[in-house]
Amino acid sequence: MTVADVRGLGSLDQRSGLTVLPVPAAPDEPRLPRARRYLMCPPEYFEVAYAINPWMNLGVVVDRAEAMRQWQELRRTYERLGHTVEVITPEPGLPDMVFAANSGTVVDGRVLGARFRAPERAAEAEHYRRWFGENGFRDVVMPACTNEAEGDFTWTGSVLLAGTGFRTDPAAHGEAQEVLGVPVVSLRLVDPRYYHLDVALFVLAEGGPGRSPLVAYLPDAFSPGSRRVLARLFPDAVLATEQDAACLGLNAVSDGRHVVLPLEATGLADQVAARGFEPVFVDVSELRKSGGGPKCCTMELRA
Out of the domains of life, which is the source (predicted)? Predict the structure, then answer.
């Protein structure tokens, strides 16, 4: 579904073939996309077979064919935007393996694997570790501490934001710093609905020399101290509403210009468009039955 389908407005980007929201005001600097490399896993065995987060309901019926259609459209969206998508083979009995973001954190070619808190997902980590080994990644470390990878680790281009409170152990933050060799800032999550950092915050534009990163987040998902840290680090952040967070609008993926987010997150889309980004809507209604959105399905492979 396109932006125009959702909002009754928008125009066709001839380069990408995607319908995007118009930019209402020019930002201080142009928003430049950067080609990314992603790892994804088809939802071939996707179902709600257990309940390990507030989004999961054992009574819900999953339309696996529709989940696959939505996943394929997400993949095609990335490819139309100029990104490379690698695919790992799904394994029977691992219905949440589709959520690739939870199984590895890659910065500068170094890989920190995952160690899941829920035993139902534990086996996923080994399948992803093997994929890294078979696809040219030589610096791969499996963690001693529980961490759910990009579910709780978010790279800003200068520091790694690290969530804790529900899944990832605080000690995993220090381990990530040692393995990945980047500075880590710890943030405490306090709302059970937003048990992973990637459903409470995402990076719109990475920082670099002379350039600060820009993020969007839901303040109420964080402890008072963490809110102060975020306000200090990102004074110009986009502050999401509860309505947009509740449809997993913050489980979004940005390439520095295009922001791929759930089609229900129209308020958040307006905010990021006002900052010079181009929102691109995708339907993730089936995948959301397990608490997943675009980012959950997407691990970034940073060379």
Answer: Bacteria
Distance CA 262, CA 288 (A): 10
Specify the pLDDT at position 14: 38
Parent domain of 184: 3-7+34-300
For 221-257, give one letter per residue: b (16+ CB within 10 A) or e: bbeeebbebbeebbeebbebeeebbbbbbbbbbbbbb
Annotated active-site residue in 83, 196, 247, 258 = 196
Could you say which DSSP state residue 211 is in?
B
Instruction: State pTM to two decimals.
Output: 0.89
Q: Note if 41 is an active site residue.
A: no
In a domain, 13, yes or no: no
Whether residue 296 lies in the annotated active site: yes
pLDDT tens for 72-120 read 999 999 999 999 999 999 999 999 999 999 999 999 999 999 999 999 9
Using CA atoms, how far apart are residues 18 and 255, in angstroms rounded to an integer? 15
Count the domains in the chain.
1
Distance from the first to the final alpha carbon of the chain: 32
Please tell me which residue in 83, 173, 247, 296 is annotated as part of the active site.
296
Place of tokens 């490379």: 84
What is the number of other CB atoms lying within 10 angstroms of the CB of residue 47?
A: 15
SS3 content of the chain, % helix, strand, coil (to 5): 30, 20, 50
